[in-house]
Write a structure and sequence with these properties.
By secondary structure, the chain is an all-alpha fold. The chain has one domain: Four Helix Bundle (Hemerythrin (Met), subunit A), CATH 1.20.120. Helices cover 74% and strands 0% of the residues. The longest helix has 33 residues. The termini are far apart. The relative contact order is 0.18.
Length: 214
């Protein structure tokens, strides 16, 4: 395995997605909560933005780079096809949940079935990626290619960084936070610590009425 490939950011993103999936499960199983209020929560908005950015970066910059490195290795190429197929299966579930949430007559049962399918499918994909694809990344990818993937990922998150960066680091241990903030320009590191993180912490992400209005 290459010591030049640091997967800290990847695992931190996966942990953040799992954290939010647990929140989704709680909302759809808590009899005191109305899951039809999900669209009005900033938690649902941030989860979708982060997941879209993460999977788009993988589809655009990670899997293609690996495919070039793995030419002539059908077993490994089949794994990349599986990763892409799992992404393709997850996106319609998000769309189906949003469509259901737009229906004032949708039942709690219907929403529960859809969110369970999403969380089960995404959890399985993340585990599959960690078990099989990330070891392959470390064996096959160059540091330059991995760096390019990181840049694409950062560009996709860029407009939403004031919320998504603290969101990503929420619950991470101090060494992980320091490692992920260290490459940032000094000015961005400072504003993240002084402004973005406190603003994010003040949010009750999964409470109704917290979603951005623009």
């Amino acid at each position: 395995m290459s010591d030049d490939i640091d997967l800290t950011a990847m695992y931190t993103m996966h942990d953040a997605l799992r954290r939010e999936m647990a929140q989704l499960d709680r909302i759809t199983t808590d009899t005191d909560r109305d899951p039809r209020q999900l669209p009005t929560t900033v938690g649902w908005t941030l989860f979708k933005k982060a997941l879209h950015a993460h999977h788009t970066a993988e589809d655009d910059a990670l899997w293609p780079a690996l495919r070039r490195r793995l030419a002539g290795r059908p077993k490994d190429l089949a794994l990349l096809e599986a990763m892409e197929a799992e992404h393709t299966a997850i996106a319609p579930l998000i769309e189906a949940i949003d469509a259901a949430l737009a229906d004032p007559e949708v039942s709690r049962l219907r929403l529960g079935v859809l969110t369970d399918a999403l969380t089960t499918g995404l959890a399985g994909h993340l585990q599959h990626e960690e078990d099989a694809a990330l070891p392959l990344v470390r064996r096959a990818l160059t540091a330059e290619q991995w760096g390019h993937f990181g840049q694409v990922h950062a560009q996709l998150i860029g407009p939403d960084a004031p919320l998504l960066l603290p969101w990503l680091l929420d619950g991470a241990d101090e060494p992980t936070v320091e490692k992920l903030l260290a490459p940032l320009p000094v000015s961005v590191h400072a504003v993240c610590t002084a402004e973005w993180a406190p603003a994010y912490t003040s949010l009750d992400r999964w409470s109704p009425g917290t979603a951005p209005t623009h």
